[in-house]
């Protein structure tokens, strides 16, 4: 029973760690080097694939979708490889755990550090504006 | 001139209230789940309860996250661009930290759900260590996100 459980649980854990590392890396990557991502322009109801926005826009959706699109196939590949390995050693699992934690914490620290010191530029107040 | 039309703007208040309600379920479930994981680490195994809480955490996390995404366009313009960036930039920055950290928690939540179904904490200590790490990180992210969300909403809501 334990062996049958191992046959699925360990490969699933490897896939989870690979997905976590890939998601964190791809999600934070555009903050490091200019990279085109999908931006959503909420006032214009449109999407644009670009490096820098030309108006009020949000890249959060686009970065998340791209990170998922990279993480999910990599997780599937990792699961398939994991299933072919007879016994995934504890040491490999511990190493993957450490990498997954490091990738996530590194990305969190990066966002925290970068955004804490950001000086946001407010949008000009429109004529109709009444605080609500 | 009239205010611009933004997707789901008319429902933004309702969405944020539901977002807050789901986050209350989430913070409770993930705290209980973390306490169950502590019991696993100490050699006691309420596995069924752990699975129920892991599923509750995953459901509540996804619902909370999705509701936040739906309200985000309205927040981005009416709250952040027109108010917070001008009068409370620290709250703008806190919001962006919160949303990015919450996104980074997504794969951990899915990993936790999958492992809760497949692993036997009595038999596999290596998986239990990873499971515990995911659980504690998710709990930390959720506590930070929920309380910073309350602070931001008290500063300026939709």
Concise summary:
The complex is a heterodimer of chains A (about 130) and B (about 160). Chain A is mainly α.
Describe the overall structure:
The complex is a heterodimer of chains A (132) and B (158). By secondary structure, chain A is mainly alpha-helical. Chain A has helices spanning 2-32, 60-84, 90-116, and strands at 37-41, 46-50. The longest helix of chain A has 31 residues, at 2-32. The interface between A and B is large, with 55 and 52 residues.
Topology diagram in text:
The complex is a heterodimer of chains A (132) and B (158).
Chain A (H helix, E strand, L loop, with lengths): L1 H31 L4 E5 L4 E5 L9 H25 L5 H27 L16
Antiparallel strand pairs in A: 1-2
Chain B lengths: L11 H30 L5 H41 L1 H30 L6 H31 L3
Helix pairs in contact in B: 1-2, 1-4, 2-3, 3-4
Features:
heterodimer, A: 132 residues, mainly alpha, 3 helices, elongated, B: 158 residues, 4 helices
Briefly note the structural class of the backbone of chain A. Answer: mainly alpha
In whole angstroms, how far apart are the ends of chain A? 61 Å
Backbone structural class of chain B? mainly alpha
**Averaged pLDDT of chain A:** 93
Give the mean pLDDT of chain B.
96
CA radius of gyration of chain B: 18 Å
| Proportion of beta-strand residues of chain B | under 5%
Low-pLDDT stretches of chain A are: none
Largest interface, per-chain counts?
A: A-B, 55 and 52 residues
Largest beta sheet of chain B, briefly? none
Strand content of chain A: 5-15%
Number of strands of chain A: 2
How far from one another are the termini of chain B? 21 Å
Biggest sheet of chain A, in brief?
2 strands, antiparallel
Lateral strand order in the biggest sheet of chain A: 1-2
Order of helices and strands of chain A: HEEHH
Shape of chain A: elongated
Tell me the helix content of chain A.
55-70%
């Amino acid at each position: 029973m334990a062996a049958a459980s191992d046959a699925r649980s360990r490969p699933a854990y490897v896939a989870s760690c690979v997905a976590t590392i890939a998601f964190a890396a791809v999600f934070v990557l555009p903050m490091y080097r200019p990279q085109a991502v999908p931006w959503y322009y909420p006032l214009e109801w449109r999407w644009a694939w670009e490096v820098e926005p030309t108006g009020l826009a949000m890249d959060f959706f686009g970065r998340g979708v791209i990170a998922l699109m990279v993480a999910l196939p990599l997780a599937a590949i990792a699961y398939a490889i994991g299933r072919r390995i007879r016994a995934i050693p504890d040491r490999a699992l511990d190493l993957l755990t450490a990498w997954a934690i490091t990738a996530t914490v590194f990305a969190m620290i990066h966002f925290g550090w970068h955004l804490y010191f950001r000086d946001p530029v407010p949008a000009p107040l429109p004529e109709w504006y009444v605080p609500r | 001139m009239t205010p611009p039309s933004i997707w789901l703007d008319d429902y933004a208040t309702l969405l944020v209230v539901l977002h807050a309600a789901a986050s209350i379920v989430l913070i409770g479930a993930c705290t209980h789940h973390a306490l169950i994981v502590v019991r696993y680490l100490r050699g006691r195994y309420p596995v069924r309860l752990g699975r129920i809480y892991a599923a509750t955490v995953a459901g509540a996390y996804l619902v909370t996250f999705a509701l936040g995404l739906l309200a985000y366009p309205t927040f981005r313009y009416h709250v952040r661009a027109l108010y917070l960036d001008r009068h409370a930039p620290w709250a703008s920055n806190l919001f962006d930290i919160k949303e990015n950290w919450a996104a980074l928690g997504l794969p951990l939540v899915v990993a936790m759900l999958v492992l809760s179904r497949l692993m036997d904490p009595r038999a596999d200590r290596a998986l239990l260590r990873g499971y515990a790490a995911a659980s504690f990180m998710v709990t930390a992210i959720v506590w930070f996100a929920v309380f910073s969300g309350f602070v931001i909403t008290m500063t300026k809501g939709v």
